[in-house]
Amino acid sequence: MKGVVLTGIRQVMIADIPVPAIQQPTDVLLKVVRVGICGSDVHYYAQGRIGNQVVQYPYRVGHECSGVVEQIGERVRGVKPGDLVAVDPLVSCGHCEQCRRRRFNTCLNQRFLGCPGQMEGCLCEYIVMPDACCYPVGPELSAEEAALAEPLAVGLYAVRSAVPLRGKKIAILGAGAIGLSVLLTARLDEPAAVYVTDKLDYRLAAARRQGACWAGNPDRIDIVKDLQTQEPMLLDVVFQCCGEQEALDQAVELLKPGGHLMIVGIPEADRVSLAIHSLRRKELTLVNVRRQNECEQATIDLMREGRLQPQFLLTHRFPLEEAARAFDLVDRYQDGVLRAMVEVASP
Prior knowledge:
It contains ten helices and 19 strands. By secondary structure, it is α/β, with parallel strands linked by helices. It folds into two domains: 2-136 and 310-343, Medium-chain alcohol dehydrogenases, catalytic domain (Quinone Oxidoreductase, Chain A, domain 1, Alpha-Beta Complex); 153-288, NAD(P)-binding Rossmann-like Domain (Rossmann fold), CATH 3.40.50.720. The strands form five sheets. Strands 3, 6, 7, 10, 11, 18 and 19 form a seven-stranded mixed sheet that branches. A six-stranded parallel sheet has the order 14-13-12-15-16-17, sandwiched between helices.
């Protein structure tokens, strides 16, 4: 089968790789249909690593995908051949101390699609996943929408990990696909106000269209001063969704005493710093958000009900053979890209 592999920094090629086979009775063989290019994929493409997770070339990335069930193991009951499914890229062990606490996203033995040292990614024609990772989406959703379920689930999990947002004043720093997913899911809780920042004006325009009451570019204005003027009592919750040190500093200044800082974005640096005396004096709560946990089905249900409408996120489509163009586009923030998707096969 064909697969997209990284062969070096910003180097991508199409390779012939073996078709995987069902090994366990709970395995599902999937024909991959759509794969979204995530910011973490681009970290591996452009830097070759995220923290201590270092790519050993050649390596296949990709974790946001949908697929059609081709074959199932003898103990699979939740899906059947022909079903279109959204894929949860996390394979947890189910028996470690974290899994017993239902903290599957921090499983001590986890394997994650497209994560170096764990699993090869889904940018290929076929993958095998446990049935627990396969969520039928029904006729209401397209293959593209099913592939968007994973980043939306991250947004939903971030929102659910915060304090209840109804009536709260919040900010989202960074309006990429994850920041916009936080915006979409946060608005379901009816916060009093949602402020959004980003350094790309087209992302700010998207945030405004999706209900942000204010959107500002920190390269153009002093967002802290501006928001402190608008909200002299400051904000209840800030979602840091860009991974930048500058945004962490801004978040601390924007939060009121007793506020919550939700760290969602993945930093490129190995270390970041925080203004400890401001944190201490304000008694701020910091919450690190690790991917998502048990939010995939809820996200699919919200999309099927029409309460989440993420189609605007998908701005670019590429065939498998042109995956390198998709990586380059996202890496360089070109042509107004929000989420680029690789079309591997027809649904």
